[in-house]
Design a protein that fits this description.
single chain, 191 residues, alpha+beta, Ubiquitin-like (UB roll), DNA polymerase, domain 1, 2 domains, 8 helices, 6 strands, 35% helix, binds FE2/S2 (inorganic) cluster, (2Fe-2S)-binding protein, 2Fe-2S_ferredoxin-like_sf
Length: 191
């Protein structure tokens, strides 16, 4: 039963150890913010932070993730206050939004290690595919997120979520710590 920390909570996946982390997160832990795009490591829509590095969760098994610290888009911030999230909204660098969670994860990892990235740094660190073509706005958003993280700029808070955080936690039980094998068929958490 591979064990790891997901969004600051211990999680045990009662699943085949060869299960891709992507499917364990989505189907076992109900953390559906992490998206399935290609399943072959090409698109980046499935990116999560593993020990702080943005990695493609479709290419990592839960056995390989054993003992690691995983952060999904749900855990990046609980109120959309992460500079990358604020800047993506402020720069309107989102169209359909399918690629956005993976991009936010990749950008967050970049900004953390390099809060003043060049365009080349951004292109290298955020190789994610976007079928809507938000790339020009994305570069501006990530540079702006860097300025926010360096305290050179502030961004007005992003619009409040359309759902109360407590209700969101019930919809996404892994955030609440209420995951059981009975209601999700795969993941257990401990407080
Ligand atoms: S779904 Fe993992 S890289 Fe596309
Ligand atoms: S915003 Fe639609 S795929 Fe990127």
């Amino acid at each position: 039963m591979p064990a790891m920390t997901v969004n600051d909570r211990p999680v045990f996946f009662d699943m085949d150890p060869d299960t891709p982390l992507l499917w364990a997160l989505r189907d076992g832990a109900n953390l559906t913010g992490t998206k399935y795009g290609c399943g072959t490591g090409d698109c980046g829509s499935c990116m999560v932070l593993i020990d702080g590095a943005a990695l493609r969760s479709c290419l990592v098994t839960i056995a390989e993730a054993e003992g690691r610290f995983i952060t999904t888009i749900e855990g990046l911030s609980r109120d959309r206050s992460h500079p990358v999230q604020q800047a993506l909204v402020a720069e309107q660098a989102i169209q359909c939004g399918f690629c956005t969670p993976g991009i936010a994860i990749a950008a967050a990892a970049l900004i953390r290690r390099n809060p003043d990235p060049s365009v080349e740094d951004i292109r290298e660190a955020v190789p994610n595919l976007c079928r809507c073509g938000v790339y020009p706005r994305l570069v501006e958003a990530i540079k702006r997120a860097g300025r926010v993280s360096r305290r050179r700029e502030t961004i007005s808070a992003a619009p409040a979520p359309g759902i109360d955080p407590e209700d969101a936690a019930r919809v996404v039980p892994a955030l609440e710590g209420g995951v059981t094998p009975d209601n999700l068929g795969g993941a257990e958490t401990e407080d």
